[in-house]
Amino acid sequence: MNISKFLATKQLNVSARGEKFTFPDRLYVALYNSDPTWNDTGQEVSGGGYARQVLTFADPTQITVQEFHPVTGVVISNMQKMAIKSAADIAFAVATANWGTVTHFGLRDAVTGGNLYYFGTLETPRSILNNDIFKFLTGQVEIRLN
Description:
Elements: E1 2-3, H1 5-17, E2 27-32, E3 53-55, E4 61-68, E5 75-85, E6 90-91, E7 100-108, E8 116-128, E9 135-136, E10 142-145
């Protein structure tokens, strides 16, 4: 998952310049038909019963991430990182119209509007049609710190 320009700026100002920043009590998952980008310029799904969903996280944990050689596929390093994963399934309401092809998602600080904190690409884009339900399973939304 990628960090947004908004959050990167806040984190640098807090950690290096002593500025104050109040993090939100919760984050909301938003679905996109295009890449939200670092600058928060993507096309969020709208209409047809779509609404952002509240996201809850489990406790942060240390994980091992393997890096593979691009040609041989052999493991070339094991890196330790801290990660936090979604603590429960995140189910969106039944679509009452076609939402188009969902390709990306973002984590935002408000149920509407607000600021983009993180964004990522779905492993498999999905066309959401009338009467479909889009769902992330527990643990599928993950934020890793390098």
